[in-house]
Amino acid sequence: MAMVWAPSRSMNGSCRRLRAPTPPAWGPPSGKALIPLGPRTAAAGRSSGAGRGVRHRPRAERTDRSVYDDQPNAHKKFMEKLDACIRNHDKEIEKMCNFHHQGFVDAITELLKVRTDAEKLKVQVTDTNRRFQDAGKEVIVQTEDIIRCRIQQRNITTVVEKLQLCLPVLEMYSKLKEQMSAKRYYSALKTMEQLENVYFPRVSQYRFCQLMIENLPKLREDIKEISMSDLKDFLESIRKHSDKIGETAMKQAQQQKTFNVVLQKQNNVKFVKNVYINDRIPEERNEVELKRGFEEEDENEEEVLTVQDLVDFSPVYRCLHIYSVLGDEETFENYYRKQRKKQARLVLQPQSNMHETVDGYRRYFTQIVGFFVVEDHILHVTQGLVTRAYTDELWNMALSKIIAVLRAHSSYCTDPDLVLELKNLIVIFADTLQGYGFPVNRLFDLLFEIRDQYNETLLKKWAGVFRDIFEEDNYSPIPIVNEEEYKVVISKFPFQDPDLEKQSFPKKFPMSQSVPHIYIQVKEFIYASLKFSESLHRSSTEIDDMLRKSTNLLLTRTLSSCLLNLIRKPHIGLTELVQIIINTTHLEQACKYLEDFITNITNISQETVHTARLYGLSTFKDARHAAEGEIYTKLNQKIDEFVQLADYDWTMSEPDGRASGYLMDLINFLRSIFQVFTHLPGKVAQTACMSACQHLSTSLMQMLLDSELKQISMGAVQQFNLDVIQCELFASSEPVPGFQGDTLQLAFIDLRQLLDLFMVWDWSTYLADYGQPASKYLRVNPNTALILLEKMKDTSKKNNIFAQFRKNDRDKQKLIETVVKQLRSLVNGMSQHT
């Protein structure tokens, strides 16, 4: 049943739902007949309703208000009127519905007709779709068959292509297996490279390829292990043959050395350094020269084996190539070097009794030579396995160990013959390894150390000899009574003095008896040192330098130490020190004769420039400086002893009129000492004199400024001035010649200006000119003047109790106080400026 909506008003003004009856039966709702409404009536109704709603709104409002007023029956009346209004509206609605009812019925009827046609159309469409579906099923089946066939065709093509890619990989892998079975490891590694770089990338997505890839590292490891096993066998082989290899190499070096000696004799060349030490002669040239040099001696001698004849190096070459292909060359190098370092440590470990026989040393050297000959061969026939840096590092390590071992074991050698044989072995050992390019300078330095050990015993012996000479010396000039004694001294010591030669007998040499004895003993030491130096495989120039160095040790260490110990001995006085200075001067002059002596016994030219000179000049200068310093010290100590005897009465009112006794004794002592200094070099005597005067001046100044001295009278100052005058007279008398003008008197200038200031009482001039370069009292320090003035101020207060009653004394006291204030001001200004 069709549902329609029609507007209707209820009592509360809401819309009401109407059900349209099934045509043709149709009737008004609630039993009321529907009145058709025309357009005009409906419009009129709408307009009247609308107008009524607008027009009666104020009225309705008034009606609403009146409903709730208190008028009786107002509500009831309102409801009645409302019902009447509703009835009127319902009538209007019925009219409107009756007017539109027929059109609504017609529309429903047409809609029902359309529904019937739509159902027919739907049936036709469904039937058409069914027929289309039935017709397309066969096409779909055929299309799916075509697609499936094309997929199969594409898959077959892909399989053929992949098989074409896989078959070469499988063939190469089969080839790899055959190479591994045939132990062709290098070819197998090349095949692996081709598989990895060319073939595997094409088929890397297949499982069998992944299995092959995973298997390659295992194969490489197998190859590594096999090649490493061969390397271990090689290392064991060279360890066993090291002795023989080293013996062969040292024999070649010995033959080369002998050949060079023969060649030198043929050319009449003496003391020329062996060529083999500096240059490695090629093997072919060695054979030719050895054959020519030893033609008569070695006619039946067997050919010397080379290192290649004794050891098969193919395993190390093969292993190196394999690891290079594997890209793990560094691992192989590290392993090889590590193992060789272990073998080196074993070779370098000597037997505990090696020092007992020469054979022990020889066996030790041949093992080391064999080891490094192999390393040198590996260095030259391989690329990178052994580098020069590595061999140098290994050699330096070995060399340090060798030197330590030889140094330790050679210290036990007490037999001179064994020491010489050891030295010869070291020389041959060094020559052999230097021929292979290894630096051996440290070995020759070791020979110098062994030689130094020999020299050390000589130095200890000569130290005792020097001590005995110094103990027996009387430290006085050598007296000569006739010509024979003069010639005896001249034959022992190269002394030349025309003035002494002109003097008549008896006469004296300036040096003491110890000088010629020391000179003779130095020459004896040079002879003893030469016995070891001659066979050190060095040229005459180098031997000459070594002798000079040994002599330098004797002079700079042994003799110098003995001289310094002698100088510092308490019983050595100023006279002995002066003689020691004279002795060292003549020994210093004799050094050039010692150099000539060394040059003569080593047969070198006088024009040869020596790398080492005799340091006697510095040695004897140091000893002389030490003696001079000791003279200055002892002289000052002596002055202090005299000064301590001073006994001034610092409160005396008048001076004694003559200098103090202690000072006159001191001056007389200085005059006698400086007369002895006439034999010293002028500068030394002048320095000693100046040092003594300065020390005396300082001591006198300290005496005045002593903190324990509280009071000083003017009489004491005047007495002190008399002593200073004697010091100045002594300085002006030129106790030591060579001083210019009043240079020596300047040592007392500080005292002189200070005493003049107090004795003249010239404070106005001092204060006015203070700080000026031309000041009369330039050397007087304000602090010094203040200290001394305060001591005199306290004295004047105590000695002049009634000074305040005398005008002159009062004025003087005021002047002192004024000067003290000004001096303090100067001192404070100096401190602030500082």
Would you give an account of this structure?
The protein is mostly helical. 72% of the residues lie in helices and 1% in strands. Strands 1-2 form a two-stranded antiparallel ribbon. Helix 9 packs antiparallel against helix 10. It is flat. The relative contact order is 0.03.
Radius of gyration: 66 Å
Total strands: the figure is 2
- Judged by helices, strands and strand pairing, the structural class is mainly alpha
Share of β-strand residues:
under 5%
Mean pLDDT: 79
Count up the helices. 28
CA-based shape: flat
What fraction, in percent, of the residue positions are helical?
over 70%
Kindly, what is the distance between the CA atoms of the first and last residues, rounded to a whole number of angstroms? 132 Å
- The succession of helices and strands, N to C, reads HHHHHHHHHHHHHHEHHEHHHHHHHHHHHH
- Widest sheet, order of strands: 1-2
Unreliable runs, pLDDT <50, ≥5 residues? Answer: 1-57, 268-302, 801-805
Question: Key terms for this structure?
Answer:
2 strands, two-stranded antiparallel ribbon, 834 residues, single chain, 28 helices, EXOC6_Sec15_N, mainly alpha, disordered N terminus, 1% strand
